[in-house]
Amino acid sequence: MTQLLVVETSPRGDASISRNMTRRFVQAWRTAHPGGKVIERDLMETNLEFVTAPWLTAYFTPPDQQTPSMKESLLLSDALATELLNADELVIATPVYNYNVPAVLKAWVDHIVRKGMTLGFDGTGLVTTKKATVLIASGGVYTEGSPIQDRDIASQYLRLILNVIGIADVAVIAGGNAKVVDMGKQSMDEFVKDLEPEIQRVATEPPRNAS
Ligand SMILES: Cc1cc2nc3c(=O)[nH]c(=O)nc-3n(C[C@H](O)[C@H](O)[C@H](O)COP(=O)(O)O)c2cc1C
């Protein structure tokens, strides 16, 4: 059964543009993958710690030498990395905060990049998830031709880190100028509808490296 892992990061619930983009994506994905399973990892409901000294000690101790408390430090990280390894496809929906991803998403990255699990000791990516889609909502516009294109750190960062862990097929759908919704100049539905063709295309196309 094909499995889609959806990572949500916005704290804004129904008012979140990235979460509304996800809804459209998941609808289209379900139609294209009857019987497919969607696993939601909502980072607003996941008690994610930043990296701590005990976590690092556990991380750098070989599994067969880890104490029970070291193993406990890594439990959530183990679960998040396993969740990703089990997925056939991944969606990350995120706002842009201060030109980058929200801290909670960076914390998720720090938990899922695990030597020996998602990253080989030789630096080769071990994640076999075949395709990732990044759904980004931002107040500004950072796409080709924008005068602030060079500030598009968030999508470049996510593309890079996903490539590093082994996911070569990464599509980014940019919901730029999302402030029109917050300012009441456009409804949420109208805003997301403009992105619909791209969302529909990406959600339904098979991974580019599929054999
Ligand atoms: C703390 C904060 C920082 C933000 N920084 C940026 C930014 O640097 N660039 C930008 O284009 N939009 C920025 N925004 C706007 C958000 O990206 C925009 O409101 C987006 O719709 C939020 O995603 P969401 O609707 O899924 O919550 C910021 C918003 C907040 C609350």
Structural class: alpha/beta
CATH C-level class: Alpha Beta
| Rg calculated over all Cα atoms | 18 Å
The assigned CATH architecture is 3-Layer(aba) Sandwich
Shape: globular
The ligands found in this model are: flavin mononucleotide
How far do the termini sit from each other? 17 Å
The CATH topology comes to Rossmann fold
β-strand percent reads 15-25%
The amount of helix comes to 25-40%
Report the order of strands and helices. EHEHHHEHEHEHH
User: For the residues shown, what is the average pLDDT?
Assistant: 96
> How many alpha or pi helices?
8
What is the topology, as strand order, of the major beta sheet?
2-1-3-4-5
- The beta-strand count equals 5
Domain unit count: 1
Report the CATH superfamily.
Flavodoxin domain
Report on the architecture of this protein.
By secondary structure, the protein is an alpha/beta fold. It has a single domain, classed as Flavodoxin domain (Rossmann fold), CATH 3.40.50. It is 40% helix and 15% strand. It has 8 helices and 5 strands. The chain has a 5-stranded parallel β-sheet with strand order 2-1-3-4-5, with helices on both faces. Strand 1, helix 1 and strand 2 form a beta-alpha-beta unit. The longest helix has 17 residues. The protein starts with a strand and ends in a 7-residue tail after the last helix. The site of flavin mononucleotide has 17 residues, from helix 1.
Keywords:
binds flavin mononucleotide, five-stranded parallel beta sheet, Rossmann fold, globular, 5 strands, alpha/beta, 8 helices, 211 residues
